[in-house]
Design goal:
This protein is α+β, with helices and mostly antiparallel strands. It folds into two domains: 98 residues, Phosphorylase Kinase, domain 1; 123 residues, 2-Layer Sandwich (D-amino Acid Aminotransferase, Chain A, domain 1), CATH 3.30.470. The strands form three sheets. Strands 8, 9, 10, 11, 12 and 13 form a six-stranded antiparallel beta sheet that branches. A five-stranded antiparallel beta sheet has the order 1-2-3-7-6. The protein has a three-stranded antiparallel beta sheet with strand order 4-5-14, with no helix packed on it. α1 packs parallel to α6. The longest helix is centred in the middle third of the chain and has 24 residues. The protein is globular, with a radius of gyration of 18 Å. The two termini are 35 Å apart.
Length: 255
């Protein structure tokens, strides 16, 4: 493939000019970050696994009518996506207490919630991605009220669907982060669609029987076996790629 112009370098992914107007090539790297980029490391093969897992989940969302930026996977590390106007808000859906919620409220991790809780965060690592309200979002012009309504409705629908999908793979969806962008549909109307990725980097996934963590918390908390956990998720979803020796190895952490 001819050398493409890189248009964005993220913490774990790069974006390149796409082959057609309105398209972008998203490249998954093996980099790992946590705590708003304060902890950094490399997990060999993670990019390959996240590419395949995110492809699978985006396609399943497409099957139920949820609009996403995903077009198709190009190779082991890259996928073709639609160009979007990024909405600088991360939505977190929590089905059980874990992570920062357990710390903030002093509640035991794993405590079930009576209903799913929705939280909004500003996508800004420089300011530690603070939690914000709908009033912040509209006052600062990050999204319009209709955008928020659309994002909320899609997030709850995605949560319902993915909870069932993962349950069938003996995995509990504890919580997850979802991001959105604006894009024009085939009729020329602006719409809100799912962007970024859905993977063990963006979801808390626990074995439904043992509670074993199968997500990025293994990296955050220095539990080891990060690549193996991601492989297990891919295996249970039926998307584990064929790989040679050394494609997925131990974790190297740099702080």
């Amino acid at each position: 493939m001819a050398k493409r112009r890189r248009i964005y370098e993220g913490k774990t992914k790069d974006l390149f000019e796409g082959p057609e107007p309105g398209t972008i090539v998203q490249h998954f790297r093996d980099d790992a970050t946590a705590f708003n980029n304060k902890k950094q490391g490399t997990i060999t093969g993670k990019g390959v696994l996240n590419n395949r897992i995110s492809e699978y989940l985006m396609l399943r969302l497409h099957d139920i009518g949820v609009p996403t930026h995903f077009i198709r996977r190009l190779n082991m590390r890259e996928q073709l996506i639609r160009e979007v106007e990024v909405i600088p808000i991360k939505i977190v859906i929590r089905n059980a207490v874990a992570g920062s919620m357990a710390e903030r409220f002093g509640i035991d991790e794993g405590t079930p919630l009576p209903r799913s809780i929705v939280e909004y965060y500003w996508k800004n690592d420089e300011h530690n991605a603070p939690m914000v309200s709908e009033e912040h979002i509209t006052a600062f012009g990050w999204a319009a009220p209709q955008d928020i309504d659309d994002m909320l409705a899609l997030s709850l629908r995605i949560n319902d669907y993915l909870s069932g999908l993962f349950f069938g793979a003996r995995i509990k969806l504890v919580d997850f982060k979802i991001e959105f962008g604006r894009n024009y549909d085939e009729n020329g109307d602006m719409r809100v669609i799912v962007a970024d990725e859905i993977s063990p980097d963006t979801c808390r996934l626990w074995d439904s029987e043992t509670g074993e963590k199968l997500d990025k918390d293994r990296f955050r908390r220095d539990l080891g076996g990060v690549a193996e956990a991601y492989q297990e998720v891919a295996r249970r979803l039926g998307v584990l790629p064929t790989s040679g020796p050394g494609d997925v190895a131990e974790t190297t952490t740099v702080q």
